[in-house]
Design goal:
Elements: H1 9-12, H2 24-36, E1 43-45, E2 55-60, E3 63-85, E4 88-105, E5 111-117, H3 118-131
Antiparallel strand pairs: 1-2, 2-3, 3-4, 4-5
Length: 136
Amino acid sequence: MVRPIMRDPLFLAGKSAPATEADKQVVQDLLDTLKANQDRCVGMAANMIGVRKNIIVVAAGPFMFAMINAKITRRKGAYQTEEGCLSLDGVRPCTRYQEIEVDYLDQNFQPQHGKYTDWIAQIIQHELDHVDGVVI
């Protein structure tokens, strides 16, 4: 189900709780909402649809994937950039890393480890900031 986008900075600043298999519908709703907003959005976190759970989704071209309870385990190549967000107006400065490694559960709650670079790494970092209540 496509959900409305949360725009309340106080809600977005709250830290998310770990997701469980009981949150499978949230994962699907997040994927549906990202797809509906793909013309102006490349990633989303569950708090952007009003659910404080550690779930993010990322669009890599036409392919979309979920990362549940994700943790960045390695960062390399810090750089400064500016980012916008579907939940907020304007752009803000932030520090990102060119290469990251992430441990997470996939949409079927199976453990995964991924290495990401460049644009996809930046998207993941932005969404994981959301999960941690970091509002850029």
